[in-house]
Specification:
The chain has 21 helices and eight strands. The chain has helices at residues 22-28, 32-42, 47-52, 56-70, 78-91, 95-107, 123-126, 129-137, 144-151, 161-183, 222-242, 249-260, 275-278, 309-320, 324-337, 352-365, 381-387, 403-408, 411-422, 429-434, 441-471; strands at residues 10-11, 196-197, 302-303, 342-343, 346-347, 368-369, 371-375, 395-399. Strands 1-2 form a two-stranded antiparallel sheet. It has a two-stranded parallel sheet with strand order 3-6. Helix 8 (129-137) packs across helix 10 (161-183), helix 9 packs across helix 21 (441-471) and helix 10 packs across helix 19. The chain starts with 9 loop residues before the first strand and ends with a helix.
């Protein structure tokens, strides 16, 4: 075709990730069966699926949940679902997801003019903008007043509770998926803007992925990475031996507050987002701020015994959006329990304490104080759903020891996690390479999945609590 004067596009990237080379991806062996299944169902295997296929058990849950959100019967029209996802992805300047859902929006019969800017969308969709930015950047500020403004009978663009819960889950899903896209350095799809060129290949020019604002070589000597693994193994063993030691309630609170107020720098240069993203964002200067900035009065901490996914959020979602609570819960459970009993070069390792520390650290960043609890009243979630949506579950709660977070999560990992969870568009190759330097890439992707799901649950908890208060 090129000989006949027809311009033939050429993919710029050789693999799905700017952080993980194609050779390394193939070496770690993504699950082929689930890739084939994905191709047969959608006609393509996108970069998200390729990277998530390193963890097929999780990918299966993820694809089912996303399919239910976007394609199955529900209160929102299909093109609205994709447009809401576009609005959400734009908050984190995620051109990858904006383009993906823009295509889905048009395929579902959406009006192309809506993509010209948020002002072209119906007023009912525009009314989600405040909730969208709070969900994306500071969900602890969401109150029942925000819910009332959207669902009260006198509202000009009234949302039903079923519609609103569908929109909330869509937005939170897209926000957290932005963390994964940026945190894994996903390259644009070959048919996306920035994913192809008509120029012939040049040895002298290697294109820079728009999903990695500042690619630097942050690799350290191999021996340093090995030493870090051994230190972490030793700390995990010591923590497991100390688990029987009891701390006072005051000491537990002190450790949580210390972790919550710790200053973890994530300062990098802010780059101007693409024009396609800018026109879909209202109040672009509104960004993440620490839940508890030093020297300022912090909002009240959300305690898990007061409002939790297991005892409150699950049944509320299932009540207003049937089966979605089950989809989300399965995904939370899979990512929380996902383990291969290995760590770097070590086999037969119990990584539970490390995975739990990661999850609770993200919740800590969002002002949620986690606990471990044991059911006293043997009741299934189905029982709780039918008895009362707000019935307290009889549980005994034990405070999580946030001292474990400081012991297990070294500073470079905290920088990566906070960047990815709070402003993922600032994730760089240097930040990705700086932590867990001797771990497999699949283990880093596993950490990304934990961050993504913990962030999703945290954002949902604040919004669901506000809806609960409104319904009382």
């Amino acid at each position: 075709m090129s000989e006949q004067g027809v311009k033939v596009p050429r993919a710029l990237a050789s693999g799905p990730s700017a952080f993980i080379t194609t050779k390394e991806m193939l070496k770690e062996g993504p699950d082929q069966d689930i890739l084939i299944e994905s191709f047969l169902s959608s006609g393509r295997v996108n970069h998200i699926t390729m990277v998530m296929a390193l963890h097929p058990a999780y990918l299966s849950c993820f694809l089912k949940t996303q399919h239910a959100l976007l394609a199955l019967d529900g209160p929102l029209p299909h093109h609205w679902r994709h447009y809401i996802a576009v609005m959400a992805a734009a908050r984190h300047h995620c051109l990858y997801l904006v383009q993906q859902h823009s295509a889905g929006f048009l395929e579902a019969g959406g009006d192309e003019s809506w993509l010209s800017g948020i002002d072209f969308a119906p007023s009912k969709l525009r009314s989600l903008q405040t909730l969208n930015k709070l969900l994306a950047h500071r969900p602890w500020l969401i109150t029942q007043q925000h819910i009332q403004q959207l669902v009260c009978p006198g509202a000009e663009t009234r949302w039903s509770l079923a519609e609103l819960i569908h929109a909330v889950v869509l937005m939170a899903h897209a926000h957290s998926l932005c963390s994964f896209v940026w945190g894994c350095g996903l390259n644009p799809e070959p048919d996306h803007s920035g994913g192809y060129t008509f120029q012939p290949p040049s040895v002298a020019h290697v294109p820079r992925s728009p999903h990695s604002p500042a690619h630097e070589d942050g690799r350290q000597e191999l021996c340093d990475g090995v030493m870090e693994v051994e230190v972490l193994m030793k700390r995990m063993a010591e923590l497991q031996q100390q688990q029987e030691e009891e701390c006072t309630q005051e000491e537990m609170v002190t450790r949580f507050e210390r972790e919550r107020s710790e200053s973890i720098p994530t300062a990098v240069v802010w780059e101007a987002p693409p024009e396609l993203v800018v026109r879909l964002v209202e109040d672009p200067e509104f960004r993440y701020e620490d839940f508890a900035p030093r020297g300022e009065q912090a909002p009240p901490t959300m305690r898990a015994q007061d409002y939790s996914w297991e005892d409150h959020g699950f049944s509320l979602v299932n009540r207003l959006l049937p089966d979605m609570g089950q989809f989300l819960d399965e995904k939370f459970q899979v990512v929380s329990n996902l383990t291969y009993h290995r760590m770097a070069m070590h086999e037969g390792v119990d990584t539970h304490t490390l995975r739990k520390a990661l999850w609770n650290y993200i919740h800590c960043l969002y002002g949620i104080r986690s606990v471990s609890h044991t059911e006293i009243l043997l009741s299934t979630r189905l029982d709780i759903f039918f008895v009362s949506n707000f019935a307290p579950c009889l549980c005994s709660y034990d405070d999580y020891d946030y001292g474990s977070v400081n012991v297990l999560l070294e500073r470079a990992l905290k920088v990566f996690v906070k960047t990815m969870a709070c402003h993922p568009e600032q994730t760089t190759t240097r930040i990705y390479n700086a932590f867990w330097r001797h771990f497999r890439h699949s283990e880093k992707v596993h950490a990304n999945l934990i961050v993504m799901e913990a962030r999703l649950q945290a954002a949902l908890l604040y919004t669901l609590r506000a809806i609960t208060y409104y319904m009382r």
